[in-house]
């Protein structure tokens, strides 16, 4: 059903430089995306416009130039660095006589190639189906009208209508299966919360070095490469942090400017690891000239998935590519870590990162020794359910002496539930 690239295809890339900042894209990023998809760039055509052309997105003269270039080179596909409407895509295909893909289709194809887990494949298929649902007419122009006659009378559906109905059914089935996966993830998160294991989620622009950092910290052996969207499926590993104990580190899919909404919706279950994390490690490729714009794009996506309020620790990565920059921790006026300078590739500053992470997480944990009277059975039940008890014993009077360690948010929640304040029981 889906167009898939084969190695060795020749592509003509088209980049339009708009005066409007919101529509601006990076031509170098397009070339990296095309390379990640396994396609060879034959040539790059650029033009400038104030607004997209209604019929061809580019002007009619530039569209003719694209058609001539495709014929001269013998290109297999034309790839635009922008989002095209279905009608613009069809008009261009008629003119250039080869496949035309926009930025969204290109990203979806890369995701389709990289999906390894069952969940990842379901999410990519869902995103692809939602994207092509508006483009189905392209493949069924020969069956647009209903047919009549002996042996051809039927339910009165065109082939296009039948295909749309089947597609809707498949989308519903995928959503049901992803809902089941989401429940399983939620169970895992609840059990981690009960065990008081904090979650740290790696976020950042694609190719910022998240998977390399993940491997350096955990020795997980996750696939890492100098290409966009090397990581698609989320990976979770336990790490040990001084004074905090065990924590979960999650490696997630990288973000990109103008990330397709279909992808954000499809990857909601995966991105929930980011939403419900105790802290985000925002990894930045500090050697990239556009790192400031990339930071803004990541924060935009975090706001879109309701993770904008989760505390962040900035990780300035790839300092080995910069002169005179040493591993260090930057702190705010109150002495809290806000930025760590590291090189995941060379292993520089990793101990400093763990130290800063310990400080950030340790401040969210509380540790107390409590003396609980025998009549407080409800409180005992709550503490057992939270699995936050490290040591326990009994006094001669029958009081329960217990050492507890839990998140500050849980301590405050229990405090509100009880008739007597928890502080009354602290030894």
From TrEMBL:
Keywords (A to Z) from UniProt: Coiled coil, Cytoplasm, GTP-binding, Hydrolase, Magnesium, Metal-binding, Nucleotide-binding
InterPro entries, sorted: EFG_III/V, G_HFLX_dom, GTP-bd, GTP-bd_M, GTPase_HflX, GTPase_HflX_N, GTPase_HflX_N_sf, P-loop_NTPase
Annotated Mg(2+) binding sites: 211, 231
Sequence positions that bind GTP: 204-211, 229-233, 251-254, 317-320, 343-345
Statement: the UniProt record of this protein carries the keyword Hydrolase: yes
Domain Hflx-type G: 198-365
Cofactor (UniProt): Mg(2+)
Compartmental location: Cytoplasm
PROSITE patterns documented for this protein: G_HFLX (PS51705)
CC annotations in GO: cytoplasm
Coiled coil regions in record: 164-191
GO molecular function: GTP binding; GTPase activity; guanosine tetraphosphate binding; metal ion binding; ribosome binding
Function text: GTPase that associates with the 50S ribosomal subunit and may have a role during protein synthesis or ribosome biogenesis.
Family classification: Belongs to the TRAFAC class OBG-HflX-like GTPase superfamily. HflX GTPase family.
Database matches in HAMAP family: GTPase_HflX (MF_00900)
Subunit structure: Monomer. Associates with the 50S ribosomal subunit.
Name the UniProt record assigns to this protein: GTPase HflX
Organism encoding this protein: Brumicola blandensis
Gene name linked to the record: hflX
């Amino acid at each position: 059903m889906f167009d898939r690239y084969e190695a060795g295809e020749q592509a003509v890339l088209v980049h339009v430089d708009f005066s409007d900042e919101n529509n601006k894209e990076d031509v170098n990023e397009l070339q990296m995306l095309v390379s990640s998809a396994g396609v060879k760039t034959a040539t790059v055509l650029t033009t400038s416009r104030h607004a997209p052309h209604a019929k061809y997105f580019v002007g009619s003269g530039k569209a003719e130039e694209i058609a001539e270039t495709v014929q001269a080179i013998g290109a297999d596909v034309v790839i635009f660095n922008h989002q095209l409407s279905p009608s613009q895509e069809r008009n261009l295909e008629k003119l250039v006589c080869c496949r035309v893909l926009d930025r969204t289709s290109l990203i979806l194809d890369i995701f389709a190639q990289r999906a390894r887990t069952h969940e990842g494949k379901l999410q990519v298929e869902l995103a692809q189906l939602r994207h092509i649902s508006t483009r189905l007419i392209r493949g069924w122009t020969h069956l647009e009208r209903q047919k009549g006659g002996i042996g051809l009378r039927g339910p009165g559906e065109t082939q296009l209508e039948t295909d749309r109905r089947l597609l809707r059914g498949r989308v519903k089935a995928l959503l049901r299966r992803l809902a089941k996966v989401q429940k399983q993830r939620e169970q895992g998160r609840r059990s981690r919360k009960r065990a008081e294991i904090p979650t740290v989620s790696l976020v950042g622009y694609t190719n910022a070095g998240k998977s390399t950092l993940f491997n350096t910290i955990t020795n997980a052996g996750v696939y890492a490469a100098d290409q966009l969207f090397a990581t698609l499926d989320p990976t979770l590993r336990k790490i040990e942090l001084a004074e905090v104990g065990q924590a979960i580190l999650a490696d997630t899919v990288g973000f990109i400017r103008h990330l397709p909404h279909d992808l954000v919706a499809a990857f909601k279950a995966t991105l929930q690891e980011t939403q419900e994390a105790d802290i985000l490690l925002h990894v930045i490729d500090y050697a990239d000239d556009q790192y400031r714009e990339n930071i803004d794009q990541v924060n935009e996506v975090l706001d879109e998935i309701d993770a904008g309020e989760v505390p962040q620790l900035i990780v300035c990565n790839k300092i080995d590519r910069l002169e005179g920059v040493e591993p260090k921790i930057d702190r705010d006026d109150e002495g809290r870590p806000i930025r760590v300078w590291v090189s995941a590739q060379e292993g520089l500053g990793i101990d400093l990162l763990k130290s800063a992470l310990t400080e950030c997480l340790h401040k969210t944990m509380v540790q107390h020794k409590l003396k609980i009277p025998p009549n407080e059975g409800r409180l005992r039940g709550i503490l057992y359910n939270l699995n936050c008890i490290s040591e326990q014993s009994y006094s001669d009077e029958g009081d329960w002496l217990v050492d507890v360690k839990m998140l500050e948010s849980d301590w405050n929640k229990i405090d509100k539930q009880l008739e007597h304040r928890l502080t009354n029981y602290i030894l």
